[in-house]
């Protein structure tokens, strides 16, 4: 690559409130274009945290998967999913099955695992008639905007994810762990610092402590890196939360988050987190054929409510271990 900047090489459009947008001329060969522009494209992601590529005319899972593979150093199989996905091929998935009228607020994919994607890739095959944008927000900016007292507590304690698996809401045990064999699930939990407890009715409950703030393994920048707000009960629509509490009990919600010491996270804290995210959000409506690359550690992403059909394929790539990101808490099963 020449010494000129990634923007000049690829003619990236930069506008406040929108992610960087690159207009590609793939001449009907999106995988070939991706292979030829891989290094320059990844340099744009390193510079800005995300980029939306427009003009690749992605139309199907096979062609999209080929593009994903050419742009990554390796696709990941998802584990510990919070919601079901359809699998299109090795490492190529649908977006999470989440009600269209409910937002998926800002989060970092699989930030509750010990090994997570360094790169997220999204491809829009069918754009919704309204809404449905995948927003992005810079994690260092979010961290700086949060009250120091709050972030210091999370740095000191970490955050706790609690999950209760059932066959109705969220992922089942088999969908999350790739098996419903109890011994295999228990072995996975022990190897990945997850406390587990089988309930009398056969369902599984887990708890895992994770670091809320990490350092980017390449740049060393401190990043607000978690799913504290997204997987918290107070982010759910009030009627959904009330229904789940009524059916499963306050301690049996499909997922919830707490301070690392176990204290509940108040509705006011979750509201503050989501307000700070919103103030930092860049968004661009999807067009069919678009591709978006996101540095999963530096940049949070969301999915806005939508109308109509929306088909977005997802790949998780370039795995990174939490231990390589200077976690602020010791991550062990308790």
UniProtKB/TrEMBL annotation:
<dbReference type="InterPro" id="IPR042098">
    <property type="entry name" value="TauD-like_sf"/>
</dbReference>
<protein>
    <submittedName>
        <fullName>Peptide synthase</fullName>
    </submittedName>
</protein>
<feature type="domain" description="TauD/TfdA-like">
    <location>
        <begin position="35"/>
        <end position="316"/>
    </location>
</feature>
<keyword id="KW-0560">Oxidoreductase</keyword>
<keyword id="KW-0408">Iron</keyword>
<keyword id="KW-0045">Antibiotic biosynthesis</keyword>
<dbReference type="Pfam" id="PF02668">
    <property type="entry name" value="TauD"/>
</dbReference>
<dbReference type="GO" id="GO:0016491">
    <property type="term" value="F:oxidoreductase activity"/>
</dbReference>
<dbReference type="InterPro" id="IPR050411">
    <property type="entry name" value="AlphaKG_dependent_hydroxylases"/>
</dbReference>
<dbReference type="InterPro" id="IPR003819">
    <property type="entry name" value="TauD/TfdA-like"/>
</dbReference>
<dbReference type="GO" id="GO:0017000">
    <property type="term" value="P:antibiotic biosynthetic process"/>
</dbReference>
């Amino acid at each position: 690559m020449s010494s000129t900047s990634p923007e000049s090489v690829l003619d990236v459009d930069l506008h406040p409130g929108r992610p960087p947008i690159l207009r590609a001329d793939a001449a009907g060969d999106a995988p070939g274009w991706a292979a030829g522009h891989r290094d320059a494209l990844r340099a744009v992601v390193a510079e800005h945290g995300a980029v939306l590529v427009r003009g690749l005319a992605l139309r199907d899972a096979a062609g999209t998967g080929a593009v994903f593979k050419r742009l990554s150093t390796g696709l990941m199989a998802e584990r510990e999913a919070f919601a079901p996905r359809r699998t299109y091929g090795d490492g190529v998935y649908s977006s999470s099955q989440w009600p269209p009228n409910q937002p998926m607020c800002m989060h970092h994919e699989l930030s509750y695992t010990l090994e997570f994607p360094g790169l997220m890739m999204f491809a829009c095959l069918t754009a919704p008639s309204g809404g449905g944008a995948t927003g992005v927000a810079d994690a260092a900016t979010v961290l700086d905007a949060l009250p120091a007292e709050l972030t210091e507590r999370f740095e000191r304690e970490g955050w706790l994810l609690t999950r209760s698996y059932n066959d109705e809401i969220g992922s089942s045990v088999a969908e999350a762990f790739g098996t419903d064999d109890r011994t295999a699930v228990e072995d996975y939990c022990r190897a990945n610092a997850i406390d587990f407890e089988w309930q009398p009715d056969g369902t599984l409950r887990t708890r895992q402590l994770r670091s809320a703030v990490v350092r980017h393994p390449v740049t060393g920048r401190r990043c607000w890196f978690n799913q504290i707000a997204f997987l918290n009960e107070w982010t759910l629509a009030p009627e959904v939360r009330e229904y789940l509490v009524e059916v499963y009990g306050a301690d049996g919600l499909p997922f919830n988050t707490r301070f690392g010491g176990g204290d509940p996270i108040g509705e006011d804290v979750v509201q503050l987190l989501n307000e700070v995210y919103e103030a930092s959000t860049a968004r661009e409506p999807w067009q069919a054929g678009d591709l978006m690359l996101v540095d999963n550690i530096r940049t949070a992403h969301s999915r806005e409510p939508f109308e109509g059909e929306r088909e977005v394929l997802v790949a998780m790539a370039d795995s990174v271990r939490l231990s390589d990101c200077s976690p602020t808490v010791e991550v062990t099963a308790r």
